[in-house]
Write a structure and sequence with these properties.
single chain, 320 residues, alpha+beta, Butyryl-CoA Dehydrogenase, subunit A, domain 3, Nuclear Transport Factor 2, Chain: A, 2 domains, six-stranded mixed β-sheet, 12 helices, 13% strand
């Protein structure tokens, strides 16, 4: 069986066109549930195999049918990945992706849901989603980001509607308790990121301190494959010292003169990509408070999690 997305220009069969129509939705759901682009792509490919083998004449609603398939595939993968993530070397962070320009668009029934949906692909939110149970995470994604009804979600995850309502309530309260109600606007975030970029590459500790919240936390993910902090780094002075060394100290065998730093959009917000002559070395993303100060930094350096960024192709992870 072939992947219908391999060459969309040569699609001939209506069933392939139907799958391709919803492929973006399927990846968007799977990525938010799993937190890795590689696993999400695998889930979408498995969904295609199931779709191509199904009796599609009996499928009244392809969107609901495909969402159910990919949701269950993602849940299975997430459950099997839990032990590996719990025994991971150092902090486990989601796999970053390039997202082009503009925030991911979300379909939401109210203002609070809209705010949650808009940041649902951010690194900070994906880290929070890691603290939910697999079922709660899938329900939260389908309800808050994609505005599925409880009945539709119940069918998708193969649970009763009351069970889905309870899971949705628990997940929403859990996320609400861990995410601030207000944060800086996108223009302020972009400005702060640009200033951080200049200060870090210029080794300006004082400028970095102005941008950091006093209790800022830096999370680094090397996966045991590259040297990174195995525990969160806390405090503005320590974090500023960490990043001010970028322009003066070799990093992963790359000398400062050979290091390339770029400002890009990562997971729906401004971020930084560091590269050597032949590879992407790390990504850095930020979480801001209401005053535009950086309260958390997520630094991914595990080579296995940098493949999507290294490809250089932005993902469309909107909800439409």
């Amino acid at each position: 069986m072939t992947d219908p997305t391999a060459d969309s220009g040569r699609l001939a069969h209506p069933d392939q066109r139907v799958f391709l129509e919803y492929r973006r939705l399927l990846f968007s759901v799977a990525y938010r549930v799993l937190g890795t682009a590689a696993d999400a792509e695998d889930a979408v490919q498995d969904a295609w195999l199931k779709w191509s083998a199904a009796d599609r004449s009996k499928v009244a609603d392809p969107k609901a049918y495909l969402t159910r398939i990919v949701s269950n595939l993602a849940l299975e993968r997430l459950r099997s990945a839990r032990y590996k993530r719990e025994t991971y070397v150092g902090p486990w962070l989601p796999e970053p992706i390039l997202t082009g320009t503009g925030a991911p668009e979300a379909v939401a029934p109210d203002a609070e849901s809209a705010a949650l949906g808009a940041e649902s692909v951010s690194m900070a939110m994906l880290v929070v989603l890691e603290t939910l149970s697999p079922l709660e995470r899938a329900v939260f994604v389908l309800k808050e980001v994609f505005a599925f009804s409880h009945a539709e979600i119940a069918e998708a995850v193969e649970r009763s509607e009351p069970a889905v309502r309870q899971a949705a309530h628990r997940a929403r309260e859990h996320v609400r308790a861990r995410r601030p109600r207000f944060e800086a606007g996108r223009s302020a975030q972009r400005e702060a990121t640009e200033r951080f970029f200049a200060a870090a590459t210029g080794g300006d500790v004082n400028a970095l301190l102005e941008l950091l919240s006093p209790d800022v936390t830096l999370w680094t993910d090397g996966g045991g494959k590259v040297r990174q902090a195995l525990r969160p780094v806390t405090g503005a002075a320590t974090v500023a010292a960490w990043f001010s060394a970028i322009g003066t100290v070799a990093y992963q065998g790359v000398e400062p003169a050979d290091m390339k730093a770029e400002l890009v959009e990562i997971n729906g917000g401004p971020g930084m990509v560091f590269s050597g002559p032949d590879r992407v070395i790390a990504t850095v993303t930020f979480d801001f408070d209401a005053d535009g100060r950086i309260r958390a930094i997520h630094n991914v350096a595990n080579p296995d999690k940098l493949r999507a960024v290294a490809e250089g192709v932005p993902y469309d992870v909107g909800a439409r």
